[in-house]
Amino acid sequence: MYKKILLLLLVFLMPINVLAVTPGTKTETVVFNKCTDGDTARFMRGTTEIKVRFLAIDTPETVHPTKEVQEFGKEASNYTCDRLKSAKKIVLEYDPKSAEKDKYDRYLAWVFLDDVLLQDDIIKNGYAKVAYLYGDYLYTDLLKNSEKEARTEKVGQWGLPVAEEKAEEPVKKEEETSTKENKGIFDLVYNFIAEFFDKLIELVDNIIEDML
Question: What pTM does this model have?
């Protein structure tokens, strides 16, 4: 009997990742239609398809027209797609501090899957970083805290080597090569000018001698 009571207490005390939408904000219930990548998807609003860019996060690229597939891009895309497909209820919440659409005519929204904020779960799993903040959005602090934890634990993409450290040496070599090339050009120009003036002085001396 005591064991059952203790078990019930533990269940009630366990933290649950449930975050209801903020009262008073504009929301709508939609139906999943198609995956795009880790931070974009298509939904059905009645009989109309809409494209939604998940607000305040950025996952590695997989379908960018001018960029190669980035590390953890496919993992992020697969994770998002699996979550969307398995959700029973999808609610979009539009942040009052954000534009409703971006320049590509995509809706910008918080995405709740069965009362769980999808952006936060993607961040926690190391598949995205907090990005594109153009205002004091509703759940920015939550995402920043989740990203900090993911970085500390080196979850997902945060376990990869830092790109800046890998690129530092080649950049330095390129700068050194550029400096050497500039110095070589300067030496050529200097030698040409010096030789020109030497010949000019010699010519003037010859003219003076003939006059005398």
Answer: 0.66
